[in-house]
Amino acid sequence: MNKDIGLLFEYARSKFTSTDSKIAEYFLARKPVKTIEELAVDIGVSTASITRFCQKLGLNNFKEFLFLYQGQLDSANPPSKREHSGLHQDYFDVLQQLDNCIDTDVVELITAAISQHKIIHIFGTGFSALAGGDFKFRFGRLGKFVEVVQDTNSMVMYQDILTTENLVIVLSLNGLNEDMAKVVKNLTSRGISTFLITSNAKSKLAKNATATLLTASLHGEERTGMITAQLPMLMAIDHLYFHYVSTNRDTIKNWVSTEAPFGK
Protein backbone atom coordinates (compact mmCIF):
# COMPACT_ATOMS: atom_id res chain seq x y z
CA MET A 1 0.00 0.00 0.00
CA ASN A 2 1.54 3.31 -1.09
CA LYS A 3 -1.07 6.04 -0.71
CA ASP A 4 -0.32 9.75 -0.73
CA ILE A 5 -1.63 11.29 2.50
CA GLY A 6 -2.20 14.67 0.88
CA LEU A 7 -4.36 13.16 -1.85
CA LEU A 8 -6.35 11.19 0.71
CA PHE A 9 -7.09 14.47 2.48
CA GLU A 10 -8.16 16.17 -0.76
CA TYR A 11 -10.51 13.31 -1.60
CA ALA A 12 -12.22 13.46 1.79
CA ARG A 13 -12.10 17.23 2.33
CA SER A 14 -15.76 17.73 1.40
CA LYS A 15 -16.69 15.53 4.40
CA PHE A 16 -14.35 17.27 6.86
CA THR A 17 -15.60 19.09 9.93
CA SER A 18 -13.52 21.83 11.58
CA THR A 19 -12.15 19.14 13.90
CA ASP A 20 -11.12 16.99 10.93
CA SER A 21 -9.32 19.96 9.40
CA LYS A 22 -7.33 20.46 12.61
CA ILE A 23 -6.24 16.83 12.54
CA ALA A 24 -5.30 17.05 8.85
CA GLU A 25 -3.21 20.19 9.45
CA TYR A 26 -1.16 18.33 12.06
CA PHE A 27 -0.15 15.63 9.58
CA LEU A 28 0.30 17.98 6.62
CA ALA A 29 2.91 19.75 8.77
CA ARG A 30 4.72 16.38 8.95
CA LYS A 31 4.82 16.43 12.74
CA PRO A 32 6.13 13.46 14.77
CA VAL A 33 4.19 10.21 15.14
CA LYS A 34 2.27 9.88 18.41
CA THR A 35 -0.18 7.48 19.97
CA ILE A 36 -3.84 8.27 19.43
CA GLU A 37 -4.14 9.37 23.08
CA GLU A 38 -1.13 11.70 22.84
CA LEU A 39 -2.35 13.11 19.55
CA ALA A 40 -5.81 13.80 20.97
CA VAL A 41 -4.31 15.82 23.82
CA ASP A 42 -1.88 17.68 21.55
CA ILE A 43 -4.56 18.74 19.02
CA GLY A 44 -7.32 19.17 21.56
CA VAL A 45 -9.78 16.62 20.15
CA SER A 46 -11.15 13.27 21.29
CA THR A 47 -9.74 9.90 20.26
CA ALA A 48 -13.15 9.10 18.76
CA SER A 49 -12.80 12.17 16.49
CA ILE A 50 -9.43 10.86 15.25
CA THR A 51 -10.93 7.45 14.52
CA ARG A 52 -13.81 9.02 12.57
CA PHE A 53 -11.27 11.14 10.67
CA CYS A 54 -9.42 8.00 9.56
CA GLN A 55 -12.66 6.35 8.46
CA LYS A 56 -13.53 9.37 6.30
CA LEU A 57 -10.27 8.72 4.47
CA GLY A 58 -11.48 5.23 3.63
CA LEU A 59 -9.29 3.55 6.25
CA ASN A 60 -10.33 1.16 8.99
CA ASN A 61 -8.62 2.76 11.97
CA PHE A 62 -5.85 5.04 13.24
CA LYS A 63 -3.30 2.22 13.17
CA GLU A 64 -3.77 1.83 9.41
CA PHE A 65 -3.44 5.58 8.90
CA LEU A 66 -0.33 5.71 11.07
CA PHE A 67 1.28 3.00 8.94
CA LEU A 68 0.78 5.13 5.82
CA TYR A 69 1.95 8.31 7.51
CA GLN A 70 5.07 6.70 8.97
CA GLY A 71 5.91 5.28 5.55
CA GLN A 72 5.89 8.76 4.03
CA LEU A 73 8.00 10.21 6.84
CA ASP A 74 10.55 7.42 6.46
CA SER A 75 10.67 7.55 2.67
CA ALA A 76 14.08 8.53 1.41
CA ASN A 77 12.91 8.71 -2.22
CA PRO A 78 12.67 12.06 -3.99
CA PRO A 79 9.01 13.21 -4.36
CA SER A 80 8.89 12.42 -8.10
CA LYS A 81 10.00 8.82 -7.53
CA ARG A 82 7.58 8.41 -4.62
CA GLU A 83 4.67 9.70 -6.70
CA HIS A 84 5.70 7.46 -9.59
CA SER A 85 5.74 4.44 -7.30
CA GLY A 86 2.38 5.42 -5.79
CA LEU A 87 0.77 5.69 -9.23
CA HIS A 88 2.04 2.23 -10.14
CA GLN A 89 0.48 0.90 -6.95
CA ASP A 90 -2.85 2.53 -7.81
CA TYR A 91 -2.77 0.92 -11.26
CA PHE A 92 -2.05 -2.42 -9.63
CA ASP A 93 -4.96 -1.93 -7.20
CA VAL A 94 -7.37 -1.28 -10.08
CA LEU A 95 -6.12 -4.32 -11.99
CA GLN A 96 -6.46 -6.48 -8.89
CA GLN A 97 -10.00 -5.23 -8.35
CA LEU A 98 -10.91 -6.09 -11.93
CA ASP A 99 -9.41 -9.56 -11.60
CA ASN A 100 -11.55 -10.17 -8.52
CA CYS A 101 -14.85 -8.91 -9.92
CA ILE A 102 -14.86 -9.69 -13.67
CA ASP A 103 -17.34 -12.48 -14.44
CA THR A 104 -16.30 -14.52 -17.48
CA ASP A 105 -19.81 -15.97 -17.81
CA VAL A 106 -21.25 -12.47 -18.22
CA VAL A 107 -18.45 -11.59 -20.67
CA GLU A 108 -19.46 -14.61 -22.75
CA LEU A 109 -23.14 -13.63 -22.52
CA ILE A 110 -22.51 -10.08 -23.74
CA THR A 111 -20.14 -11.10 -26.54
CA ALA A 112 -22.68 -13.67 -27.73
CA ALA A 113 -25.29 -10.89 -27.86
CA ILE A 114 -22.84 -8.68 -29.80
CA SER A 115 -22.39 -11.53 -32.30
CA GLN A 116 -26.17 -11.83 -32.75
CA HIS A 117 -26.87 -8.12 -33.22
CA LYS A 118 -25.78 -5.89 -36.08
CA ILE A 119 -26.92 -2.67 -34.41
CA ILE A 120 -25.62 -1.73 -30.96
CA HIS A 121 -26.50 1.33 -28.91
CA ILE A 122 -24.12 2.44 -26.17
CA PHE A 123 -25.75 4.55 -23.45
CA GLY A 124 -23.33 6.53 -21.29
CA THR A 125 -22.60 10.05 -20.09
CA GLY A 126 -19.36 11.90 -19.33
CA PHE A 127 -16.29 9.68 -19.16
CA SER A 128 -18.45 6.62 -19.83
CA ALA A 129 -19.48 8.14 -23.17
CA LEU A 130 -15.81 8.58 -24.05
CA ALA A 131 -15.26 4.89 -23.29
CA GLY A 132 -18.27 4.20 -25.50
CA GLY A 133 -16.41 5.93 -28.33
CA ASP A 134 -13.61 3.39 -27.93
CA PHE A 135 -16.18 0.56 -28.13
CA LYS A 136 -17.62 2.13 -31.31
CA PHE A 137 -14.21 2.44 -32.96
CA ARG A 138 -13.16 -1.14 -32.26
CA PHE A 139 -16.38 -2.99 -32.94
CA GLY A 140 -17.25 -0.69 -35.83
CA ARG A 141 -14.16 -1.97 -37.64
CA LEU A 142 -15.52 -5.50 -37.19
CA GLY A 143 -18.73 -4.74 -39.07
CA LYS A 144 -21.00 -3.59 -36.25
CA PHE A 145 -23.07 -0.42 -36.41
CA VAL A 146 -22.50 1.28 -33.07
CA GLU A 147 -24.32 4.43 -31.93
CA VAL A 148 -23.16 6.21 -28.75
CA VAL A 149 -25.97 8.08 -26.95
CA GLN A 150 -24.36 10.58 -24.60
CA ASP A 151 -27.15 12.32 -22.66
CA THR A 152 -30.15 11.08 -20.70
CA ASN A 153 -32.69 13.14 -22.69
CA SER A 154 -31.61 11.38 -25.88
CA MET A 155 -31.76 8.01 -24.10
CA VAL A 156 -35.37 8.70 -23.13
CA MET A 157 -36.14 9.57 -26.76
CA TYR A 158 -34.34 6.51 -28.15
CA GLN A 159 -36.02 4.00 -25.82
CA ASP A 160 -39.33 4.13 -27.68
CA ILE A 161 -37.87 3.55 -31.15
CA LEU A 162 -35.57 0.65 -30.25
CA THR A 163 -36.71 -2.91 -30.96
CA THR A 164 -35.50 -6.42 -30.17
CA GLU A 165 -33.23 -6.11 -33.22
CA ASN A 166 -31.18 -3.62 -31.22
CA LEU A 167 -28.67 -4.38 -28.49
CA VAL A 168 -28.17 -1.82 -25.73
CA ILE A 169 -25.05 -1.64 -23.54
CA VAL A 170 -25.22 0.84 -20.67
CA LEU A 171 -21.97 2.25 -19.27
CA SER A 172 -22.25 3.81 -15.81
CA LEU A 173 -19.33 3.52 -13.41
CA ASN A 174 -21.23 4.61 -10.29
CA GLY A 175 -24.62 3.28 -11.48
CA LEU A 176 -26.55 6.07 -9.76
CA ASN A 177 -28.33 7.75 -12.69
CA GLU A 178 -32.07 7.53 -11.90
CA ASP A 179 -33.17 8.47 -15.44
CA MET A 180 -30.97 5.74 -16.94
CA ALA A 181 -32.46 3.24 -14.47
CA LYS A 182 -35.96 4.05 -15.76
CA VAL A 183 -34.81 3.66 -19.36
CA VAL A 184 -33.20 0.28 -18.63
CA LYS A 185 -36.39 -0.94 -16.95
CA ASN A 186 -38.46 0.15 -19.96
CA LEU A 187 -36.14 -1.54 -22.46
CA THR A 188 -35.90 -4.90 -20.71
CA SER A 189 -39.66 -4.97 -20.09
CA ARG A 190 -40.07 -4.86 -23.88
CA GLY A 191 -37.65 -7.73 -24.43
CA ILE A 192 -34.70 -5.62 -25.61
CA SER A 193 -31.34 -7.05 -24.53
CA THR A 194 -29.84 -4.41 -22.24
CA PHE A 195 -26.51 -5.05 -20.54
CA LEU A 196 -24.92 -2.90 -17.86
CA ILE A 197 -21.23 -2.30 -17.15
CA THR A 198 -20.70 -0.70 -13.74
CA SER A 199 -18.61 -0.83 -10.58
CA ASN A 200 -21.71 -0.60 -8.38
CA ALA A 201 -23.17 -4.04 -7.68
CA LYS A 202 -26.08 -2.44 -5.82
CA SER A 203 -27.03 -0.08 -8.66
CA LYS A 204 -30.72 0.35 -9.47
CA LEU A 205 -29.73 -0.11 -13.10
CA ALA A 206 -28.49 -3.62 -12.29
CA LYS A 207 -31.89 -4.65 -10.91
CA ASN A 208 -33.49 -4.41 -14.37
CA ALA A 209 -30.60 -5.04 -16.77
CA THR A 210 -30.48 -8.29 -18.72
CA ALA A 211 -27.11 -8.91 -17.04
CA THR A 212 -24.47 -6.81 -15.31
CA LEU A 213 -20.73 -6.90 -15.87
CA LEU A 214 -18.90 -5.54 -12.83
CA THR A 215 -15.67 -3.65 -13.34
CA ALA A 216 -13.17 -2.00 -10.99
CA SER A 217 -14.13 1.11 -9.06
CA LEU A 218 -12.13 4.26 -8.39
CA HIS A 219 -11.97 5.30 -4.76
CA GLY A 220 -9.84 7.39 -2.47
CA GLU A 221 -7.21 9.53 -4.16
CA GLU A 222 -7.80 7.84 -7.53
CA ARG A 223 -10.99 9.90 -7.77
CA THR A 224 -9.01 13.16 -7.69
CA GLY A 225 -8.03 12.54 -11.31
CA MET A 226 -4.69 10.79 -10.84
CA ILE A 227 -6.23 7.88 -12.74
CA THR A 228 -8.62 8.60 -15.60
CA ALA A 229 -12.22 7.71 -14.84
CA GLN A 230 -12.41 5.93 -18.20
CA LEU A 231 -9.92 3.26 -17.17
CA PRO A 232 -12.29 0.75 -15.47
CA MET A 233 -14.71 0.98 -18.42
CA LEU A 234 -11.94 0.59 -20.98
CA MET A 235 -10.63 -2.45 -19.13
CA ALA A 236 -14.08 -4.06 -19.23
CA ILE A 237 -14.36 -3.27 -22.95
CA ASP A 238 -10.93 -4.84 -23.46
CA HIS A 239 -12.27 -8.08 -21.97
CA LEU A 240 -15.32 -8.00 -24.25
CA TYR A 241 -13.24 -7.24 -27.34
CA PHE A 242 -10.64 -9.90 -26.56
CA HIS A 243 -13.27 -12.57 -26.00
CA TYR A 244 -15.26 -11.51 -29.09
CA VAL A 245 -12.21 -11.66 -31.35
CA SER A 246 -11.12 -14.99 -29.84
CA THR A 247 -14.50 -16.64 -30.46
CA ASN A 248 -15.31 -15.09 -33.86
CA ARG A 249 -12.02 -15.44 -35.70
CA ASP A 250 -13.50 -16.81 -38.93
CA THR A 251 -16.19 -14.14 -39.20
CA ILE A 252 -13.71 -11.37 -38.42
CA LYS A 253 -11.20 -12.76 -40.91
CA ASN A 254 -13.86 -12.64 -43.64
CA TRP A 255 -14.83 -9.08 -42.69
CA VAL A 256 -11.21 -7.88 -42.74
CA SER A 257 -10.71 -9.47 -46.18
CA THR A 258 -13.60 -7.42 -47.58
CA GLU A 259 -11.92 -4.25 -46.28
CA ALA A 260 -8.57 -5.09 -47.82
CA PRO A 261 -9.26 -3.69 -51.34
CA PHE A 262 -10.20 -0.32 -49.87
CA GLY A 263 -6.93 -0.07 -47.96
CA LYS A 264 -4.81 -0.12 -51.10
UniProtKB/TrEMBL annotation:
All copies of domain SIS, residue ranges: 110-247
Signal peptide as annotated in the record: none
CDD domains cross-referenced by the UniProt entry: SIS_RpiR
SUPFAM superfamilies: Homeodomain-like, SIS domain
Record PROSITE patterns: HTH_RPIR (PS51071), SIS (PS51464)
Keyword Signal tagged: no
Cited PANTHER family: GLUCOKINASE, RPIR-FAMILY TRANSCRIPTIONAL REGULATOR
Entry protein name: MurR/RpiR family transcriptional regulator
